[in-house]
Amino acid sequence: MLPSDNIMSRLFLGLDSSTQSLSGIVIDLDTRRVVYEASLNFDQTFPQYKTHNGALRHSDPLTVHSSPLLWVEALDALFAKMKSAGVPLGELLAMSGSGQQHGSVYLNRRGLAALENLNPHRSLKENLAGGFARETAPIWMDTSTSAECAEIRRALGGVKATAQATGSDTFERFTGPQIRKFYKHEPNRYAQTAAIALVSSFMASVSAGKLAPIDHGDGAGMNLMDIRKRAWHPGALRATAPDLRKKLPALAEPWHVIGKVSPYFVKKYGVNPAALALVWSGDNPCSLVGLGLLEAGTLAISLGTSYTCFGLMKRCRTDDRGEGHVFGAPTGDYMTLICFKNGSLARERIRDMYSLDWDGFNRLLETSKPGNHGALMLPWFETEIVPRVNRPGLRRIQLDDHDVAANCRGIVEAQMMAIRLHSDWMQVTPRKILATGGGSVNPPVLQIMADVMNCPVARIEIAKSATLGAVLRAAHGYLKHAGQPAKWPAIVAGFTDPVPGSEMIPNPKAVGVYNKLIRHYAKAEQTALATTR
Ligand code: XUL
Fold it and tell me: How far is the CA of 140 from the centre of ligand 1 (A)?
């Protein structure tokens, strides 16, 4: 199965340090084959860290951290697993990775020195222990920085100005507000911090054995990077914390080669000493290429725990309302992303409320009428990111709570109309939508998506789009570095095909219904927001 005897094979490794696991994938670019794939779940494989879904419990529920030592222990374990599975690591040409976005790692001087002298006779954890000015790393699920968000936003001139400057309004999970909170609450530890890395750039630093730059994709998730100049934004740095510039690594293109893979991996696991270590990026930018989204006009809608809608954008356009984000794309373009917190779990709440299973829920979608006779739902079971809702609650507008079918339809229509309504700032008329994530296996949900968005929808079955995107970035960076043709469509070809026969075509009659209903939905949102904020 492993192609060590295939002289034509060009092998690349991609890793994904996500919230709950570390995953790896090795591809052969010539045969377009995935030759190895593995994933280590943090809670199950490393119970000693006592993580819950990859996060450490904290007495304050808004504070959510994880452990950089856990991530490097997982890196050792994954390389050991690949070695014992016979993966021809000696033939790897390059590696890159993807990281959960926004999370930050605070290295002290000792940590920086340790990176450059990783001793293969010890574990990564032993090498790096004592190398952190802050033992734990705040991650994207942390929402404890509202005060700091307000302070930075004010200093940058409000929502619109902040979004125009950094690509997003300030958000609690973004790195700048997190750094500011650390500086305010633990000034001594902040002063001991020699370098601040993102999850992605920290893992890249370990892979290369030196402090890695932050790529433009993940750098845009910090509220610290000038989104148009792709350089640190002096005003944002000033608004965040003193001496911050000195603690941040350089910014780099997503295909930047940091150097050769650290000798640690060569000596310990037999990795090719000539293999290139590329910068890593955020999981969303990686997913963009992992799903083959290379042109403006194709959107991905991921129906996961939360729903995300993202796509490539050629020219930088920011959201004046401050709901959407702009990140750098691995292609050198931009990407947009909107994140809705009340996704699949909210849909599940309605299913459970009426004691249905998914088949029953889907049947009711098929037998009820598009537009629900004007009945609407605002399914904000949890606080919502888009639109910002601080006081959660399910709302029904002309919707009878005894009408089971209307409630099932109500939540799906509401979620799809929210996506359409809040993605209008992108000013992209979608020509094709790729649906992904757990919820995308339900055809009636995809039909409503097609009708509301007035666009064909196809399902794409790539469970690990971020890991795949990471390895495709490794191949792209390698080819570019070698001066060989590195066109993205050729690189992704054969890896990112939609599921045959999964396409849903919009029904013109239903489209007409939703074109009208969306105005009522927008009004209902406005009215509700006036009282729920
Ligand atoms: C995006 C975000 C999440 C994380 C998840 O802004 O916060 O999608 O990247 O890993």
Answer: 6
Phi/psi at 501 (nearest 5 deg)?
A: 80, 5
The residue contributing the CA closest to ligand 1 atom 3 is 101
CA of 48 to the centre of ligand 1 (A): 25
Over the stretch 431-466, which tens digit does the pLDDT of each residue have? Answer: 999 998 878 889 999 999 999 999 999 988 766 889
List, chain by chain if needed, residues with CB within 6 Å of any ligand 1 atom: 18-19, 100-102, 140, 173, 221, 282-284, 339
Is the Cβ–Cβ distance between 45 and 65 less than 8 Å?
A: no
Mean pLDDT throughout 163-190? 97
Q: How far apart are CA 320 and CA 331, in angstroms?
A: 25
Give the helix/strand (H/E) hosting 433.
Answer: strand 432-436
Tokens of 398: 């002309």
3-state secondary structure 129-155: CCCECCCCEECCCCCCCHHHHHHHHHH
Band of pLDDT at residue 1, cut at 50, 70 and 90 = very low
SS3 call for 311: strand
Please state the length of the chain.
Answer: 533
Which residues, 6+ apart, have CB-to-CB distance to 159 below 8 Å? 153, 169, 320, 321, 322
Atom of ligand 1 nearest to the CA of 283: 9
Residues 30 and 252: their CA atoms lie apart, in Å, by 28
Ligand 1 atom nearest to 173, measured from its CA: 7
Looking from the CA of residue 101, the nearest atom of ligand 1 is 9
pLDDT above 90 (res 5): no
- 101-134: pLDDT as tens digits: 999 999 999 999 999 999 999 999 999 999 999 9
Do 525 and 342 contact (CB within 8 A), yes or no?
Answer: no
| CA pair distance 67, 82, nearest whole angstrom | 23
> What number of other Cβ atoms are within 10 A of residue 12's Cβ?
28
φ, ψ of residue 74 in degrees (nearest 5): -65, -35
* pLDDT score for 3: 46
Best residue among 20, 100, 143, 335 to mutate for probing ligand 1's pocket (most ligand atoms within 8 Å of CB) is: 100
Predicted confidence band of residue 22 (pLDDT cuts 50, 70, 90): very high
